[in-house]
UniProtKB/TrEMBL annotation:
The gene is plsY. This is Glycerol-3-phosphate acyltransferase. One of its GO terms (cellular component) is plasma membrane. NCBIfam families: glycerol-3-phosphate 1-O-acyltransferase PlsY. Probably interacts with PlsX. The keyword Transferase applies.
Length: 197
């Protein structure tokens, strides 16, 4: 029952549709009808600018990370904590409130990985640095997101984190790659949008 409770709590925390709410109540727009139709920070940035994109990304990281942190205050089982994090990202990607049409889970996954061990955030931090470097080099947020998350997942093993954290991190990274499948097609076709310098 403990695992079910924290899985459900993680899902609810992650399912708060930050980008949708920001666009709706600040801009008066439905983010799903704009740009890529995604509710994540990148699409919010297209509609509302870089500051709002950063704000949404930070909140999306925190909602996943704090769900794991809250669970860790009551339990220490890495498997349950890993499950909590996975469900938080699933909540972001498939929120009940928006007909299960959510984001790609990039920021939320970084938050989850960063909080799996509050005293060992380096996989997420280094993964974030890699994300930034790839984004600045290629100008493709999608490429940076996939590379950054896969790197962060690999780093959980390099830093000796419990196996459930590494398994969950790789699952979430691969889930994000799958969620980017339309971007991958556009990259192959040379039609993927680049970020402005």
């Amino acid at each position: 029952m403990t695992a079910v409770f924290w899985a459900f709590a993680g899902y609810l925390a992650g399912s708060c549709p930050t980008g949708f709410l920001v666009a709706k109540y600040i801009k008066g727009a439905d983010i799903r009808a704009f740009g890529s139709g995604n509710i994540g920070a990148t699409n919010v940035g297209r509609l509302m600018g870089k500051r709002w994109a950063v704000a949404v990304a930070v909140f999306d990281m925190l909602k996943g990370g704090l769900a794991v942190l809250a669970a860790s205050c009551f339990i220490s089982d890495p498997t349950i904590l890993a499950l909590t994090g996975v469900c938080a990202v699933l909540g972001h990607n498939f929120p009940l409130w928006l007909g299960f049409r959510g984001g790609k889970g990039v920021a939320t996954t970084f938050g989850v990985i960063g909080f799996y061990n509050f005293f060992m955030p380096w996989p997420a931090i280094i993964g974030g640095i890699i994300w930034y470097a790839v984004m600045k080099t290629t100008k493709y947020v999608s490429v940076a997101s996939m590379v950054g998350l896969l790197a962060a997942a690999g780093l959980t093993a390099c830093f000796g984190m419990p196996r459930p954290y590494t398994a969950a991190s790789f699952f979430l990274a691969l889930l994000s790659v799958w969620r980017h499948r339309a971007n991958i097609v556009r990259l192959k076709n040379g039609t993927e949008s680049k970020v402005k310098s």
